[in-house]
Amino acid sequence: MRFLLCALAATLLVLTAMNLSADPVASLYDLKVNSLDGKPADLAQYKGHVTLVVNVASHCGFTKQYTGLEQLYNDYKDKGFFILAFPSNDFGGQEPGTPQEIITFCSTKYNVTFPMFEKVATKKGESQSPVYQFLTTGFPQPSWNFCKYLVDANGKVIKFFPSKVTPEDKELRDAIDAAIKG
């Protein structure tokens, strides 16, 4: 018995040292992040809503998807739908900007009104954001900018869409409609 207690204590120390929890994250909405302007943001505020999480970049061939994402957000926000955008510089160095530069670019060029959060690492590794650690458990890693993860009202990922799937795509919109209907 003493051996088991020591082993358990050692395991907890290792998990703590690795900045991991003994309890896995059960929902996207269990996570806390920072907004793009640096303020703490609790993703629990989206619990009960369907969300689309997108890794975005300002200097990418897919950047024009901001227009479609804003339209998608406007089409569905009254139904309890949110787009959660996470800038990332992981692919081709296509998001080198500061938070203020990203905010200015998105608001002036694309009139973005959906929530945007701090720049994150999406690729697997030590610096990968907890958001992307969660999203990619059982789903593909982002292969480029503007990959999309559809998350249900309970915070579970239900579908992955690669960059080439645009916000106007019927498959994406049908999946959002089905998720909203529950």
Estimate the helix proportion, in percent: 25-40%
The biggest beta sheet, please? Answer: 4 strands, mixed
Number of self-contained structural domains: 1
Q: Low-confidence stretches at least 5 residues in length (pLDDT < 50)?
A: 3-22
CATH class: Alpha Beta
Mean pLDDT: 90
Number of strands: 6
CA-CA gap between termini: 47 Å
Q: In what range is the share of β-strand residues?
A: 15-25%
Structural class: alpha+beta
Q: Assign the CATH topology.
A: Glutaredoxin
* Shape descriptor: globular
List the defining traits of the structure above.
single chain, 182 residues, Glutaredoxin, four-stranded mixed beta sheet, two-stranded antiparallel sheet
